[in-house]
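Researcher: I'd like a candidate sequence for this fold, 597 residues long. If you have to choose between options at a position, lean toward the conservative one.
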């Protein structure tokens, strides 16, 4: 032990001497002796520090990676939460249709399934419901080329005379053979009379939950026709002529209900009793009005396939296709297999009724058809419940001779009874009054003036005075009498101004009210009507003042002629006789009557 301690001490001393030597600048390299115990401790400490640093680095890297993953997941879910609703909003209905899942509207789905199960073809289109749009419509589900046939419905699924005869033979037999029906509704089906039999059939089926047409009837919207308005609402239109037309429609529907429906219910109780889960259906008056107005607004003109009368057409209610909404600037692309052989198929010998694209459509675009470019604004308002927006070509205001003036005109020359337009003129959006009517009015003024002169000249010899009916004047006399033309134009101007001043509200007031937020359908429809006819009245006044100042006997107005107005379609614009003399326009939004010339 002593020797070991001596060696350890000597060694320590030797090392210390070496350190002293190196410190003093010695250059000789002397090996150092390191205690093994001390060396292992330092090594382990260095190793631990290295391992701890590496572990800490791995931990930090792991934390950074997890944090990055968490952030990525967060934004993934945020984007997912934003993108999915947007995609569903933009393409959801189309995706549902592409996947065969239908739409979000059960009524549309039921109708579409019923049509396709019955042999119908729906290609690239869908039925949809929109609260904002006010009901159902038809939209494309994909890009659609022009004139692509997107819907074909077998005629035996439509509601019309032949399908009713095959599916409801007892009811159809009553409609054809009953004498009361024949008296009030005509001898048979067709377009030569009002579509009363089709109205009666729809009324019969409307509350039959087991009806073959139940999926179709469920799509019929609530009726918004002005025919259901109260007296106060009709007076608020400020158009007595329009009110009279509406009351005539209401009276005709009421007449059929009182004389035909009541008779059928009491005479044929077996046919007119339908028991549903809700009880026995009462064929009430309100439902009949609804059925009548639906047929007026939705029935199509189609070939009757009548072997005995091969040219006859009839009224047809076409499911699915009648959901297409109106637009003024498109065509009317629909028809049956007979009238439109190129577009409408015949499959297994069955005729179809089809509708095809009026233009190229993108996916999810609503598709439109024109309900008739040659129908007057009055017709749209009375039967469809709206005036076409964006187009005023169908708007008319009438100027008519009173019954007294019409009777006096008849005394000079009795015109054929089928020409009531002699007594009524119209003006469209350009404010030009029909020249034929002006000529007739001036003719009467010239006849009255010349006949009065003849009466004065023959005071002493009245036996030589010709009868009024044999008294004539030439066309040249009429065209050259500028005083008579001025007299007639001034009379019309005074009458129109008096009517405008008598209206409860002005054009400016109505336009301002129409700009306010939408409140009710009745308010919007009433203001739209008033604004539209008042615009024409104001234009007429400016035109008349201009022509009177020009002292023009030929057509010369302040505003240019709108050739596209239906005011110039003499075969379209109708007038009806009113009393012994005179006539009333059937198509005008407002009517001014001339009491004297």
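Model: Candidate sequence:
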């Amino acid at each position: 032990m002593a020797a070991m301690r001596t060696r350890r001490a000597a060694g320590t001393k030797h090392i210390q001497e070496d350190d002293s030597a190196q410190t003093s600048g010695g250059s000789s390299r002397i090996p150092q002796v390191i205690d093994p115990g001390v060396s292992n401790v330092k090594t382990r400490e260095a190793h631990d520090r290295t391992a701890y640093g590496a572990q800490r680095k791995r931990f930090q890297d792991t934390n950074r990676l997890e944090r990055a993953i968490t952030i990525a997941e967060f934004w993934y879910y945020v984007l997912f939460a934003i993108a999915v609703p947007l995609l569903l909003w933009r393409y959801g209905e189309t995706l549902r249709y592409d996947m065969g899942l239908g739409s979000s509207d059960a009524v549309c789905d039921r109708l579409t399934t019923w049509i396709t199960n019955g042999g119908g073809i729906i290609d690239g289109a869908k039925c949809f419901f929109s609260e904002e749009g006010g009901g159902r419509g038809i939209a494309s589900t994909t890009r659609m080329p022009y004139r692509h046939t997107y819907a074909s419905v077998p005629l035996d699924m439509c509601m019309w005379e032949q399908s009713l005869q095959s599916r409801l033979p007892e009811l159809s037999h009553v409609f054809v053979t009953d004498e009361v029906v024949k008296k009030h509704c005509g001898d048979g089906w067709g377009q030569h009379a009002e579509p009363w039999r089709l109205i009666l059939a729809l009324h019969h089926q409307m509350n039959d939950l087991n009806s073959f047409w139940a999926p179709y009837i469920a799509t019929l919207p609530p009726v918004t026709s002005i025919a259901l308005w109260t007296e106060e609402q009709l007076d608020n239109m400020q158009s007595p002529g329009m009110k009279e037309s509406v009351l005539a429609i209401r009276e005709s529907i009421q007449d059929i209900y009182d004389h035909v429906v009541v008779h059928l219910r009491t005479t044929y109780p077996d046919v007119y009793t339908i028991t549903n889960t809700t009880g026995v259906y009462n064929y009430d008056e309100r439902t009949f009005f609804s059925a009548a107005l639906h047929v007026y607004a939705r029935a199509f003109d189609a070939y009757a396939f009548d072997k005995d009368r091969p040219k006859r057409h009839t009224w047809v209610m076409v499911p699915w296709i009648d959901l297409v909404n109106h637009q003024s600037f498109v065509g009317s692309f629909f028809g049956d297999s007979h009238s439109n052989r190129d577009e409408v198929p015949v499959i297994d010998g069955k005729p179809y009724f089809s509708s095809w694209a009026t233009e190229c459509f993108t996916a999810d675009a609503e598709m439109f058809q024109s309900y008739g470019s040659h129908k007057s604004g009055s017709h749209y308002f009375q039967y469809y419940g709206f005036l076409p927006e964006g187009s005023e070509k169908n708007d008319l205001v009438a100027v008519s001779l009173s019954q007294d003036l019409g009777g006096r005109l008849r005394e000079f020359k009795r015109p054929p009874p089928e020409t009531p337009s002699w007594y009524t003129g119209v003006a469209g959006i350009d404010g030009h009054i029909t020249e034929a009517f002006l000529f007739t009015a001036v003719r009467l003024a010239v006849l009255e003036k010349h006949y009065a002169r003849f009466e004065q000249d023959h005071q002493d010899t009245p036996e030589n005075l010709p009868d009024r009916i044999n008294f004539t004047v030439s066309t040249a006399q009429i065209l050259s009498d500028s005083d008579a033309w001025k007299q007639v134009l001034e009379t019309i101007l005074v009458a129109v101004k008096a009517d405008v001043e008598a209206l409860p509200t002005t054009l400016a007031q109505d336009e301002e009210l129409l700009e306010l937020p939408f409140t009710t359908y009745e308010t919007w429809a009433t203001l739209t009507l008033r604004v539209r006819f008042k615009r024409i009245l104001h234009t007429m006044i400016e035109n008349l003042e201009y022509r009177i100042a020009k002292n023009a006997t030929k057509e010369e107005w302040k505003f240019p002629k709108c050739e596209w107005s239906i005011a110039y379609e003499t075969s379209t614009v109708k007038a009806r006789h009113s009393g012994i003399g005179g006539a009333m326009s059937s198509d005008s939004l407002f009517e001014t009557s001339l009491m004297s010339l």
